[in-house]
Amino acid sequence: MEYLIVIEPDFEAGGYVVSCPTLKGCVSQGKTEEEALENIEDAIKTYLQSIEDLKRLKKLRASL
């Protein structure tokens, strides 16, 4: 699945800040654009995995 991302230069700290508006709170950064893009890819994967983990936990609790 593809997600829209926004990448912006961080003028104060240097580097780039990148976010995925579709996934609230999913933000990362990097020293270069390439690093920021790699980091947001990891952040998106972690975000989606966390949602799946929460769903499984809720199902487990419901079955107890």
From TrEMBL:
Q: Which domain of life is it from?
A: Bacteria
Pfam families per record: HicB_lk_antitox
Ranges for the HicB-like antitoxin of toxin-antitoxin system domain? Answer: 3-54
- InterPro entries of this UniProt entry? HicB-like, TA_system_antitoxin, TTHA1013/TTHA0281-like
Under PANTHER family, the record lists: ANTITOXIN HICB (PTHR34504), UPF0150 PROTEIN SSL0259 (PTHR34504:SF2)
Q: What protein does this entry describe?
A: HicB-like antitoxin of toxin-antitoxin system domain-containing protein
